[in-house]
Amino acid sequence: MNKVVTRFAPSPTGFLHAGNYRTAVFSYLFAKHTGGSFILRIEDTDTARSKKEYEDNIYEALAWLDLRSEKTYRQSEHKARHRELLEKLVAENLAYVSKEEVKNEGDREEVIRFRNPGGLVSFTDLIRGEITTDVTDLGDFVIAKSFDEPVFHFAVVVDDSDEGVTHVVRGEDHISNTPRQIIIQRALHLETPQYAHLPLILSPDRTKLSKRNGARAITDYRDLGFLPDALFNYLSFLGWNPGDDREYLTRDELIEAFDISRVQKGSAIFDETKLLSVNQHWMRQLSDEDFLAKMMDFVNPSLSIDSEMLGKAVSLLKERSKTFGEAREMLSGELSCLFEQPCLDKERLTAKELPSHPRMTVLALEGLLEPLKSLPEGASPEAVKLTIMPVANAEEAKEKGGRGAVLWPLRYALSGQEHSPDPFTLISILGKEESASRIRKAIAILV
RNA sequence: GGCCCUAUCGUCUAACGGUUAGGACGUCGGCUUUUCAAGCCGAUAAUCGGAGUUCGAUUCUCCGUAGGGCUACCA
Question: Is the confidence metric ipTM above 0.90 for this complex?
């Protein structure tokens, strides 16, 4: 059997989104699983709608995703070849130049139409089995606006053949285009490749994913701080599964496990919440070094950030964020107290839902200073807890409002935040000197 | 309208014609923590409807229904 060649053929008429990308992923997985090759073809025959910025976006997105193609073609580079075959078809009277009524702006007075032989056309789809259509109703459809401007159906057939594409893996929206492409292939005496029509990816409103219904550009996911392999992992599970209970697979594992016969027939809705959880999973798999390196890409370089402290914050970041974008937010939000002095509000210092006893709070905080001194430098959160909890529990025993009467003011004094990591972790990271200093500042506010 | 495709928890999905219809995400509850997050434990929830075929249909067939796609001088 010949080596498998698949292709991804986006048109540069919009930003690459998850629907396009999922098609690329499956096409890539199918090729790589069999040791075949994957090529990229920019379908830019529609000069009116094709834009350089969209073409660049495709390259940019694929580079970020590390979806490497063996070869890259631009359809417009094959004009001479298209013209040659168009002329051949007309010479053989299999197509003809037709006079047209101009209905819309941009319409030509003459176009090239294909002489449709009509009849039943069937092909075997790798995912759906045999599909049969009567092509008679298609009529003599247009295959080119002029000899130098072939239309999609014609260009695709010629290019797939010239580029040695053996398997066309594309979206379900092309099922009804396939029969007409097959009759063009027959007229040209070209071999018909294998087809695999993927189920569509839908927006939550159940329509085909598009910019209109809120689909993000792939590059947006990059800018939001998603891991490319997380997106790859999530998307490969939209319409496919390996047949066992695994949900988190690396790219190599996906290539190994991919089996086109397990591809779903029904379309799937793109669920960003689940993507987020898959991304969180892969962020946590990262080593602290890798995590830090990726994190630095997301921190505004102009923002001076204590890299030593950032290193200490990694486990908190891994535990609390689902994207690097979120992690970056935390640096100036709930985790900001690691990098700068907290700004304290006197009212907030006394525990919530407890009678306000500033004096009691002062006593509670003062009671922590001594135990804190006994802590070794670099004590773990568990060690800190072992030291602090007895004080809090003693306070509770004295019925001054429970452990919260100590723990809340302590946490708030350290963080200045309504929500933050627990006080033990904070002390462990901040160190006993800094912690003691913050506690004294809090006391000073109260007295 | 015509043609084509599809149909299992809210979502992604598993289940050689025989399972208490399984997992994951979400949601809800509990534990833990007097914050938040995480973690652990638990719960909720599905075979679109109707006929067949069969001893037995989620699974096979047909008919409905619903959704989607195509129906361009877009791809």
Answer: yes
